[in-house]
Amino acid sequence: MIYFKWTSAIEIGHVEIDSQHRRLFLLGEAVVESLIDSVEHKLAATHLQTFIAYAREHFKYEEMQMNSAGYPQAERHAKYHASLLAELVMHCNKVHWGQNTDSEALTSFLWNWLILHIDLADRDMVDWIKSQGSDVEDKRNSNLQQLSGNSPASPTTV
Ligand SMILES: [Fe+2]
Ligand SMILES: [Fe+2]
Predict the structure, then answer these.
(1) Count of domains forming the chain
(2) 86 belongs to a structural domain
(3) Which of 151, 154, 136, 143 lies closest to 17 in space, CA to CA?
(4) Domain for residue 156, yes or no?
(5) How far is the CA of 33 from the centre of ligand 1 (A)?
(6) Does 8 fall in a domain?
(7) How remote is the CA of residue 150 from the centroid of ligand 2, in Å?
(8) Which domain CATH number covers 73?
(9) Residue 18 falls within a domain, yes or no?
């Protein structure tokens, strides 16, 4: 059974961010499977640590995108990231020490924060960045194409 099933409805229209979200889903699935299948809670904690490390990198990437685009909600969004990470670390510590082995509760927590954050905060961010015409990734691609003598097929390819 797949708990964290990726569908196109979850995509927010930014190639790199969608790809990172997809990876978070895969890592979240590994956490849930280890919680359910394993009697050894430290394995689940290890998967959760991997999930947290990737979430931290993903959040940095989004914050770089927001800051470089001048997104007006960047500070609020970054605070949301920080509070999600703090909650994740708290859950991870509990799982590691065997204080939270309620797999259903942890699955709901992971699923809710992924879906709610992506569908509300991240979607708003990407919509705004796209409404401004481009983002860091686009500019980088455009510069590379100019250097190689090719013009971009479209000014907004996200
Ligand atoms: Fe995100
Ligand atoms: Fe985000």
Answers:
(1) 1
(2) yes
(3) 136
(4) no
(5) 22
(6) no
(7) 33
(8) 1.20.120.50
(9) yes
Q: Which ligand ends up closest to the CA of 83?
A: 2
27-75 pLDDT, tens per residue? 999 998 888 876 677 888 899 999 999 999 999 999 999 999 999 999 9
Q: Which of 7-11, 37-41, 102-106, 147-151 has the lowest mean pLDDT?
A: 147-151
pLDDT in tens, 78-88: 999 999 999 99
The parent domain of residue 51 ranges over: 13-133
Kindly give the distance from the C-alpha atom of residue 45 to the centroid of ligand 2, in angstroms, as a whole number: 23
pTM of the model: 0.81
Report how far ligand 1's centroid is from the alpha carbon of 39 (Å).
31
150 alpha carbon to ligand 1 midpoint, in Å?
31
Residue environment code for 114-146, b if the CB has 16+ CB neighbours within 10 A, otherwise e: beebbeebbbebbebbbeeebbbbbeebeeeee
Give the number of the ligand closest to the Cα of residue 12.
1
- Per-residue CA distances from 83 to 87, 89, 95, 113, 145 (Å): 6, 10, 18, 11, 39
CA of 154 to the centre of ligand 1 (A): 24
